[in-house]
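Handover notes (outgoing to incoming on-call)

Open items:
1. Membrane protein: sequence verified, structure written out, both below. Nothing else pending on this one.
2. Nothing else urgent.
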Amino acid sequence: MSLLLGAFAALLTVLGVTGARMMRTTGLEDVEAQLRTAPTAQRERGFGAFLDRLGSLFLGTTMRMYGPVRLRRLEETIRRAGRPDGLTLTVYLRRQAAFVVIGAVGLVVFMAAGQPWTGILLAVLLAGWMRLWLLSAGRKRQEQIDMELPDFLDVLGVTVTAGLGFRQAVERVCEFHTGPLADEMRTVLQEMGVGVSRRQAFIAMRDRTRSDGVSAFVTALLQAEELGVPLSSALDDIASDVRKEHAQRVRQAAAKAAPKVSLIVTMTIVPGTLILIGSSILLANREVLGGIF
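Membrane protein structure tokens:
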């Protein structure tokens, strides 16, 4: 009888440990380990590893709070940002949860110290840090794609003019180019290799990048294909149009920067100059002012 009770107790212990692990995990860890590259895994040390260990305790709860719809949107956002630093959905959720926990602890500490507003500011900043970082990485990637697109199209047009087909030309150009645009083109080639039509593959790339230049390129390319326009001349025209649009966006950004520079000068240099002038006047007339006051 005692042996049966011992075996039953051991079984309950194993079931309890397994159940606790299932509550803390989501089943995506093995998939994540396969998706992430070895260099990225080697870099994850120090604070990043601490965030991953802390966030893994709350990964299941975080995924349930997001829900399937928001998780799909988040996965699209990560893919659109180019998976910076090998980021996956699981890594993002772990680190998001870790920052929220750290912010909550900081809030409690500052409230105990009598500084609740500092704690609230810290908690809000940490809670939104991963989202801000991801959006910033996506915006930088989009800007880099816009910068690389005209040169990429020029080389592609020359390659097509040399006699290669469009797909072979894209493969050849991608061999000598690095960066997010070349990565997107390789993705298009992979999709076409598994049976996706050229139209669907390029439309998917346009939806992923959400770049005005890529959108113009894809639209013009599909129109040239439908109308039967020679591809080499169409690529030259597309490259010229994209370069003009990029120059226009640069001019618009420069025009928007002028008021910002004026505001910074007004808020920083002008007050300092006024204080310096006022101090000089007071020092020069200290005897007269001392007699008055």
